[in-house]
Amino acid sequence: MCRPPPAPPASTLDRVSAALHDAIRSRLWPVPLSAVVLAVVLGVALPLLDAAIDQQLPGWMTGVVFGGGSSAARDVLGAVAGAVMTVTSLTFSLTVVTLQLASNQFSPRLLRTFTGDGVVQATLALFLGTFTYSLIVLRTVRDRSDAPDWVTGGEQFVPRVAVTLSVILAVGCVVALIGFLAHLTKQIRVEPVLQAVHEEGSATLTRVAPAADADLVPVLDGTGSPVPSRLTGFVTVVDERRLLRLADEHDLLVDVTASPGAAVLQGAPAARLYHRDGRPLTAADPGLVEAVARTIRVGAERVGSQDPTFALRQILDVVLRALSPGTNDPTTAIHGIGHVSALLCELLRSGPGDALLHGDDDVTRVVLRRPDLTALLDAAVGHVLRYASADPAIARELLVLLTRLAWTRPDDEELLEQLRGRRQQVLDTVLPTSTEQDRRVLEASAGELDRVRDGRWDQRARV
Q: Which residues span the membrane (predicted)?
């Protein structure tokens, strides 16, 4: 078989588009930058509004808004700007320290959770917006001798409404600082971190297409016309709607072998094109291949927008870090395995494996390849067991994980058989190095898997 031609080099537009897409979703700067732009607009517009309505304010408003002269207005605006910038520096420093703790104690992949935190972004946005707004308004405060004609026509001018808003924003910053500190102390604890990642994975599961019945997935032999990846990195998003439209227009079947989360190499096939009935498509129009390639977006790191297994990977990273000799925190590992089992149960309910997209004529047009149950269990059981082979408590938690999965689908004999195989793997690894007491506990936990079939399994508290 001929080797497919190399993919054309990625254009600058592709790289900028991918960077912006990721930055808006999970970076610190977009929301604060938007607040700064809004502050500049308000700082320019409100003094003009003040100049237009200064003599027409209702009596009750005159007693509420700022009533000092130009010198007092300068002092207030300068004090607000200086204090807010100092607090902003403190907030930024605390955020950086939190990111360092999260990276060292939990996992570097959890940094996206912290930088994408709405409370952190909103707090920085309020502080930076207040600082910028106060500076912009400060430039319009003038004595009678130096007032610009375009603002006041040469008269003394104090933008009372604008200064009042600056004071209100300063009070809001104080309240936001208290809320930020309370939120930060919560976010650096492992349980809220695991819960946030779990919720993100659950939300992704509700967005992605459910897995199809294995009997309905077309049997494709990998001989279709290749669609090379445009970049090297991780697949972040597959534009399913555009991909489905292309497949409908050209009466094709698209096999997306590199679904979100997969690592791809530039020029290597990320998808293959087939005829509608699954027959190999030996040659495809280069323009069509390029259009399909553009629907598969690639970034420098994994994201969870269409990849529910990314949340699973993040939690497993925390579990493995907790089991490392340098950390030695089995309690965190046990809590993490609990979240892993919950996510796997949700994945099992939605159906692990490949998903199908159907066109307008209800014909299968797109096959999205995803990890099956075997791959998920390899990650959840095999990886953890490799680092906890001498810890009966972790082994017991893995047995509970298998029992929970069995409880999700107790009548699926194929699933139960696979779970029994994993159970034996756990026992074979841990029992040889366990004490007699630990063996009895592990064998009792292993027996719970067989009780699921009869509906007699109960969840019990564990120390």
A: 28-49, 76-99, 119-141, 161-182
